[in-house]
Amino acid sequence: MTQHQIAVQARFRPETLERVLRVVRHRGFEICAMNMESASSSGNINIELTVASPRPVELLFNQLQKLVDVGHVAIQHQTSSSQQISA
Q1: φ and ψ at 63, to 5 degrees?
Q2: pLDDT tens track of the chain, all 87 residues?
Q3: DSSP H or E segment with residue 18
């Protein structure tokens, strides 16, 4: 299985994190690590996800970009599952 590190910038709303996690699960990815922090005064949140799946990460990337409150998605890093990365 391949691991991918993804950065998501989104509006801070109660349902935003739930939507992101639902898309990850529905696309067949497993969350290995997650970090979320709110941006100071902009009303946004930054979510860093480390996900694993044998499926292409583009499937997840395309669906995350379609979410209403998501402003930006970036794939930061890719490794094989034998290596560890921290988010």
Answers
A1: -75, -35
A2: 899 999 999 999 889 999 999 999 999 999 999 999 987 777 899 999 999 999 999 999 999 999 999 999 999 877 765 444 444
A3: helix 16-26
